[in-house]
User: What shape does this take?
Amino acid sequence: MPRKIIIDTDPGVDDTMAIYFALKSPELEVIGLTTIFGNVTTELATTNALRLLEIAGRTDIPVARGADDPVAVPFGGPVAFVHGEDGQGNVFLPPPTTQVIDQSAAQFIVEQIMSQPGQVTLVPVGPLTNIALALRLEPRIAQHVQEVVIMGGNALGPGNATPSAEANIHNDPEAADVVFGAPRKVTMVGLDVTHKVFMSDAHLAEYGRINNPLAQHIARIVPFYRDFFHERSQIDGIWVHDSSAVAYVIDPGLFKTEQWPVRVDANDSISRGKTWPAIGDTDRHNLEPWHNRPRVNVCVDVQGDKVVEMELARMRS
Ligand code: RIB
Ligand code: CA
Assistant: This one.
């Protein structure tokens, strides 16, 4: 039986790659996309989610629109210099012909989890606002979700939005602190591992040679994103963020994990958005503010080459 997943997403070039990787993976059944601000506004994220499913011929998958702003403060604005003005590498796709469902992202998440207890995995690859709002709407989803596999955070290494914080968590630290405190299994696929999953220019060129609409769309949009990495980090390729969370759901054996309680700095400080694990023995876990927090399954290492091979193999299939 394929694992049912909802991808909560801010598409975004790497979000697009992750969505298409999931759609091409027989181990997964994508039962919905929920949208969120981050790389783009929520409005554009929603438009893009609909467009992406149309390109893939998967308009059977519902799209639910998410929150426009973080839970505590207004959204800081999109990052056009990373993903393009359109969030799709400035290819400016025509408007979608399909529409969102008549439920918010939080309502859709709650309904899906509560109607299929223990069977739905959430894969948030953007800020965690919708997941926190769903927990507020129905706290029992924390017991009934199968797992929450988050792309976000940095346990041991530096951030990317700021020297201390990763972009998804930095975009809504208050929401992230709620989600990392939810009792059910929460897995963090953060920069500690995504910076070890590298798609080189040679790998990226593969997409152009794969004859299906999904790979062809990625081939169109990825050069803009790749050029951002080249300028920012002087690498010839990209670090694979959102697809690494999908890879974890398919094959957690490719990752090494540690179980630590995690708090998020939601203060107005230089480490706002930093995920702080309580590393060490139980004494440390008992310290405030980690006291009584559930352990998060934190990815600390990964067989990066295998993740890249798996993603490309699925796109060829
Ligand atoms: O830090 C990487 C994350 O930020 C990814 O989800 C990317 O899409 C951006 O949202
Ligand atoms: Ca994303």
